[in-house]
């Protein structure tokens, strides 16, 4: 493959100071910078790098055609998103074919529940693609709690709050340490599941880890209505420690 | 608390280019740099930062009194290590009391199965301690495979290869995506467990992720005798993707 490279660059949890040296360098030398955002919003990834993009760089905001307007299990959701990702991939391929490198901004680590994965799967066989791993939002969350997440032989389970309650409980019952992401409107279900699993007393809610407005509260004290997208629940392992 | 600060600085998976901007800056301005190592070895954390420590900085190698010579379940193991960590913490406290900042080098992310945690628990109530999160070795491992680890609502489970075989199998049977660390001499047991769980065909072995000598091989083709410490097994999730 000739042409430019598409870089999927993990920006880490939000604080630009936690970006990798490689991400920082790629960004400060970028000529094309692409990023996802919800229509009408600035985009979280783009905001992380405010002031870092060189003058004259061309920005390519990739605006989701839909976020929560169509339910996930509606077949139209997949159709609409699939067409959107294909279109974004085409645009990026055109740039690469013209010899241009493109930095695609990715919150967190690109290969860990990231949107870039949907571009990567469409680009990897037709362009040069490089992925820069990064600090995850969950690392920032457990660091914010001031306690290690895992000790010794602890098992760590990462769950999405979108899972059915019985699945959440089953996994919670068979792990030492726990991280729950995609909290949002699932917070009440997650709290019930943690109650059932007997973990409520050990659960912490971290909002905006490594971002302005970071908060760390015992989950028992958290608002049960709705949580911001950037919320993570953490239950620390209790494993072996000398 | 007055005095200096003890910084537990995550260095990431091994490539200095994947270190955070904050870690890089703390290190290049350090006056005291502490790190764990096995007696007689240079120490992996110390090697990552070769050439980055300022001239005149004072290095404090903390040499493990024991690594694999005493079995983990022997009470002497805990006693010896506990005394060692207490002694290291005392030395660091003396520096902080004298107003000195100390950078403690941590491979990967300090609060994710890290040795620094044993110092942190002894220091946090008597000195100022700050932890800098970082890219984990497992992020580098799944990035090295060229495939995302988790999609949609995938459950990710992180297991230590030191667990009993039946526990490994039970967890493998109830997850979408899987990471196994602490491979070493446990490789044959891990392969049997993956066979039992029907995951062998999807398992990859990554050695030295983001370090010189990185390799990625299907686990089925890997040496079953012994693997280096820096080996990680990855089984990718297969979740929802538009």
Give a nutshell description of this structure.
2 copies of one chain form a homodimer. Chain A is of the alpha/beta class and 242 residues long.
What does this structure look like?
2 copies of one chain form a homodimer. Chain A is an alpha/beta fold and 242 residues long. Chain A has 7 helices and 10 strands. Chain A has helices at 21-28, 44-48, 75-97, 116-123, 137-145, 165-172, 187-196; strands at residues 5-10, 32-38, 58-64, 102-106, 128-132, 156-160, 177-181, 203-207, 215-218, 231-235. The longest helix of chain A is centred in the middle third of the chain and has 23 residues, at 75-97. At the A-B interface, helix 1, helix 3, helix 4, helix 5 and strand 6 of A face helix 1, helix 3, helix 4, helix 5 and strand 6 of B.
